[in-house]
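<purpose> Linking amino acid order to shape
<body> The protein record starts here
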Amino acid sequence: MTGAALAVASTIVGFDPTRRSWIDEAQAAACPSFTRVPPLDGKLVMDSTTLAGNAHDEGNMLWRTPCAVLYPASVDDISKMIRYCGRFGIGVSPNTGKNSVFGQTLVDGGLMINMRSLATIHSITSTHADVDGGVLWMDLIKAAFAQGVTPASITGYTQLGVAGTLSIGGLNAMTSNRDVWQVNHVAALQAVTGNGDIVRCSAGENTDLFNALRAGLGQCGVITRATVEMVPAKTMARLYRVPYADIATFFSDVRTLAARGGRQGGFDWVASVNSTGPVAPIALWAAALFDPSAPPPPTATLMQGCSALAQGGQFVDMPYLDYVFLVDTAVNALRTSANWDRLIKPWINVVLPDSGAQAFVESVVPALGPQDLSATTFLVIVPVKSGTIAPLLRVPPSTGWHWVFGLLTNSTLPGPDPSYSASMLARNYRLWQSAVAIGGTRYLEDAVPFSKADWQMHYGAVYEQFAAWKRQFDPHYLLGRGASVF
């Protein structure tokens, strides 16, 4: 929101517990029962335009209108307002851009915190970056690259807030297939708990909160600052894109390439990332990151042991930033050509054990129809080796390879369309059940309607610990109501 817009917005001065409503300056004289909000460095507004703009997310399936939006100018603002909301049981949800697809960052009748107000990159060194939770990964990547480094784990779409992806796990979908989760590459966090306490935490300090925040869906605190790992940045990328008609051949080639990934003469990252159109081709993306002084080896070396199809693959060289922003470039184009931000996005992402991944894809992909696929749908198949796992990040119980299968379905026409949404959500639930049947799990950036029993099944043995952290750090159950975990 611009300064001019804030100037004309209705400024909230308190909350009336009798009528359960926010009170602005014009209403205050006629409402002696209201409780005044604490003094803030930022702005707290409730004009109809602002509330309507924060009532839906990128999924365009759910509408939950907040009663107020906070534009914090300090972490103290967040602390003060969480304490204030705790007195009245008002739900609180942080948001860095309405990027959830199934209401996870929405709050009905509560307080929305626009985290983009806190978006300072405090420092970047050769090993770490210290950033506010509202910083977008794209902005951090650009600033870090200017200093010769890059985040250790980079999502496919980078116009996402640092706090947001750390709250779901954050999947490296561009630079490595190994130790892919962003929560594995965060050294420390600062957060405001559901008690309103401002707490710094890490693996050696306030460890329970650190574990509750990483992939914790914002249930126990609002991440306001993070120290994330940096690694040296290459300046170029060589990208192969090879279409496959046969799923078995694709899996054979990708397993071969992933096994030697990141080594001399190998690719840094391999996957299928494809915008599908009316059918669902599997298309290998294989990227080798390099500096011009040390280019990748020839195709025959890179593709050694793979099919003739891969051996005949063509490549293109591009600057590193152009490569890591490929998905952003595609989505930005779709914003213009396909009304992207108004499309319905019933996405599903599952993490599959290596033993059942190929059979799962072979059963699902050929059966997809026009309702599942549009010209803007992305089909993602990524081999991942997880490394150490944060307690709340649920992946199949193996230290070996897993596969992330993402069916990022988008509607052909802008929403809303309740019938289409209901049909796709039912499909997602069936796919999740099929994944669970072979030992798979769900990656929680998606749209799968979960009951309380489903959440307990998802978290399994760590559910009771998660529930205990919720009681400890958010005793009023203010945070993360949009996800409906508890």
